Amino acid sequence: MRNSLLPLPPAPPVARRSLRRVMWFAKLKVALVAVSLAGLAMSVVGFVALRAYAAHNLQLVARSVGYTVEAALVFRDPAAAAEAISLIASPEDVAEIAVSDAQGQPFALWRRPDEGRFQGLEDHVGRLVFPEPVVLPLVRGPDTIGSVRLVGHGGALLHFLLMGLAGLLVCLFLSALAAAYSSRRVVRHITRPLTNLAVVAHAVRRERAFAQRVPASEIRELNTLGEDFNGLLDEFEGWQRTLQDENSTLAHRASHDSLTGLRNRAFFESRFNRAVREAEETGERLALLFVDADRFKDINDSWGHAAGDAVLVCLASRLRAQVRETDLVGRLGGDEFAILITPLHDAADARHIAENLAACMREPMPLPEGSTLQTSVSVGVAIYPEDGRSTQALMMCADAAMYTAKSRRRADGRRAADPSPHSDIDIQERPRAHV
Question: Which PANTHER family match (predicted)?
Answer without folding.
Answer: DIGUANYLATE CYCLASE DGCT-RELATED, GGDEF DOMAIN-CONTAINING PROTEIN
